Amino acid sequence: MRGITLGMVLAWMLLHHIPHAIAADTSTSTGRESRVADKPCAEVSAEEAAKLGLIRQMLAEGKPHAALAHLDAARIKSEQAELLRANALRQTGRGGQAQAIYEQLTSSCVSGHAYRGLGLIASHAGNLQASLRYLETASRALPTDHTIRNDHGYVLMQAGDYELALHEFLTALELAPDYRQAANNLVLLLYRQGDIPRAEAFAKQFGIVAEEMQQLQQLAQDNPRAMP
Q: I need a surface site. Which of 54, 91, 137, 219 has the fewest CB within 10 A?
């Protein structure tokens, strides 16, 4: 999921890597978010763990089609493998198939990540309230996961809740100081708030170059409430 151009383009692609997702089924979410599973996943063999690690790397490198091919070849029966399949399907634009898998995983050992996936699908579909519910649940299940904190902050920003978004971005960066996506989102948020001195200070702190800063500032000025 790297390899896009600058700053916020990268941040948006990482959050919304689904060209044609369908809306999350909010009718199935009522009451389920409070029952997030907290149990260990079944162990897989060393060989299977190595294969899953390779597939995760493919997804991180923006190769979801290759990841799906390797999942088909590996034939691993585990919640971790199903989560990777859902992530890959989401990234290839098959949001409906991904959503069905995520929903099945919400009571599994990877429930927090499943709720994150549902939140990303809902966000891409423009259903911010459903997305916030899913991501809040994911954050409760995995409170130290910096990617979920960033995703939650991004949707809060899009919903206009800048104060809570700020806290989510800062939490993500304290958990993972080198997490550039959260740094970009934080600077964008500060530009949207008109707090240019703090935006520039954070940009300097996180090594955001002048061209990226200009893009973020222009993005904030063009349409402060629209998705990039």
A: 54
Question: Per the domain annotation, does 36 fall within a domain?
Answer: no
Number of domains in the chain: 1
pTM: predicted TM-score of the whole model, two decimal places: 0.79
141-158 tens-digit pLDDT: 999 999 999 999 999 999
The domain in which residue 67 lies consists of: 7-15+45-222
228: in domain: no
| CATH number for position 56 | 1.25.40.10
Residue 29 covered by a domain: no
89 lies in some domain? yes
27-41 pLDDT tens trace: 233 334 444 555 788
